[in-house]
Design brief:
With about 525 residues, this protein is mainly alpha-helical. It contains 22 helices and 2 strands. Strand 1 and strand 2 form a beta hairpin. The longest helix has 29 residues, at about 475-505. It is globular, with a radius of gyration of 24 Å. The chain starts with a helix and ends in a 12-residue tail after the last helix.
Length: about 525
């Protein structure tokens, strides 16, 4: 072993220790910047009067008595209220039943037995890219499932974890359909545009064309990186005998289990789909009719469907696993069913420690207000620059990508940026839709690189769960795996923006680059 490798091993920090170091750094930086009264003043929008309001973002120091009080009085509640924690535990109940009963192993075997490895990877990548309409749920459900699919296919499960997380983050701002996040951002864009154009409207399919093409191109690029770089770079994975698919044909009981699971889930899905379709007799019961757009009725903040979506999917997983288990006779009584619910929670102790460290770091960083100050600074930079055309496009793309490292929330960033950025773009002849698209593309380029993204910890925890090395999976290594995806995504999406701007192609139905 070389001297350089020995030094690298000594300085490699366990993820939990790395979060502790990041917490200390955030506290120290907040104290230093607060001492120098660092703040940024920018303009927000008064929607009532359609005018600007001067707002100041300042650094909140945690390097003092009040900071210590905040940390000690809020750490427990921040962990208990951390959405990732509750959602992960709930979803793992369903995945546990599917894994315990053998449903996942059998279903994966049927679907992938004669398929090429690269095709399986491509399907997983494409599904993840298309799943942004479901919000953050895919980060909870697809990462564990991708790991199991690769494991049953006798491949390193970390390949599936890395590829699925890369696809979910790189496709976070891409959607063929208008998502609830897109709707919230569009409202901010519309309000900002009304300062200069009272007739501006943001169409539901305004960004459809460019989003579809971006998804298709990225699906091939991410698959290529996964198969030709990540899969070859990861160490060999040692399998136990029951962790891979059998080459035997389906038994009668397995076939019976699959049929029973399919029929049961079909009935369940028909009931739910009927209840999210408006206008039919006794239908649409799961929609929030206080909203105007259908996507907001379905996935809005107060929607039953949105608030219960994680549990809805978990029940579907349980139906699949339980009915398969009954048909295949792998679940014979209620005791075995209860045991299956906790199957995926076995050994979750380390994951909970990871989540606790992550939740604490994220809450402390948010409390310092460092992220909002950085976003406000970029906002002023864009609005005060003399840039126009492609220079302005590239500046917003970079600002969005860098800001996302510190403030992963799309709505939080755009709420600060839109009131100044959108009018700046309109003044140089660029539409509000294109400005929002640039912002979203910038997010895709860097979301997978930040530990401040709440669902990053799911990715890191599962890498560690399937890590067979004596050393723990470090935050640096997990980010390094995502760097090639992020770089390629940034280059491709920026190239798309430049080409669309130069050729003046339509963004979608009713969406254009020029005002």
């Amino acid at each position: 072993m070389t001297k350089r490798k020995k030094i690298k091993e000594r300085i490699t920090l366990h993820p939990v220790m790395a979060f502790i170091v990041l917490i200390i750094i955030a506290i120290l930086i907040s104290g230093i910047l607060s001492l120098f009264n660092v703040s940024v003043t920018y303009n927000t929008l008064n929607t009532t009067k359609v005018d600007y309001i001067s707002t100041t973002q300042s650094i909140n120091s945690l390097f003092n008595l009040s900071g210590v009080k905040y940390i000690f009085s809020n750490t427990v509640s921040n962990f208990a209220n951390f959405t990732v924690l509750s959602h992960l535990i709930i979803v793992l109940l369903g995945i546990g039943v599917m894994e315990y009963s053998g449903f996942l192993k059998t279903a994966v075997g049927v679907l992938t037995k004669k398929a090429k490895k690269k095709l399986i990877t491509y399907v997983i990548v494409l599904v993840c890219l298309l799943s942004s309409i479901m919000g953050n749920l895919p980060f909870i459900a697809f990462i564990p499932l991708a790991a199991l699919i690769f494991k049953y296919g006798k491949r390193n499960p970390n390949i599936g974890i890395i590829a699925s997380f890369a696809s979910l983050t790189c496709g976070y701002g891409l959607s063929m359909f208008f998502t609830s996040i897109d709707s919230s951002l569009a409202k901010l864009t519309t309000d900002a545009a009304h300062l200069l154009d009272s007739g501006f409207k943001f169409g539901t399919f305004s960004l459809f064309l460019i989003s579809v093409i971006a998804i298709l191109v990225l699906s091939f690029v991410i698959t290529h990186i996964t198969e030709n770089y990540i899969a070859r770079k990861l160490p060999k994975y040692e399998f136990e005998e029951d962790e891979t698919l059998n080459d035997d044909e389906l038994t009668r009981s397995e076939l019976k289990g699959l049929v029973l699971a399919g029929l049961g889930s079909l009935v369940y899905l028909v009931i739910f789909i009927y209840n999210i379709i408006p206008g039919l007799p006794f239908s649409g019961n799961f929609l929030n009719y206080s909203e105007t757009l259908y996507i907001d009725k379905l996935f809005g903040a107060e929607s039953f469907f949105a608030n219960g979506f994680v549990f809805i999917v978990t029940i579907l997983f349980i139906i699949w696993g339980l009915l398969y288990g009954i048909g295949a006779k792998t679940i014979k009584n209620n005791r075995e069913f209860i045991e299956s619910l906790g199957h995926s929670l076995n050994g979750i102790g380390k994951t909970l420690v990871f989540i606790f460290a992550s939740a604490t770091f994220i809450s402390i960083f948010k409390q310092t207000n460092l992220g909002n100050v950085i976003v406000a600074g970029f906002t002023n930079l864009i609005s005060s620059s003399d840039f126009s055309g492609l220079a302005l496009v590239i500046l917003l793309f970079i600002a969005s990508a860098v800001s996302t490292i510190f403030v992963p929330s799309s709505v939080s960033k755009w709420a600060i940026m839109a009131p100044q950025v959108v009018p700046t773009f309109i003044n140089v002849g660029i539409s509000g839709e294109f400005a929002q698209l640039i912002f979203r593309f910038g997010e895709c380029a860097s979301l997978g690189l930040t530990p401040l993204f709440a669902y990053f910890i799911v990715y890191l925890a599962y890498l560690e769960r399937y890590n067979q090395d004596e050393k723990s999976m470090s935050i640096f290594t997990s980010i390094k795996y995502q760097s090639s995806y992020a770089a390629c995504t940034a280059g491709i999406l920026l190239l798309f923006l430049v080409l669309w701007y130069i050729i003046s192609l339509p963004l979608g139905f009713g969406g254009s680059i020029a005002v």
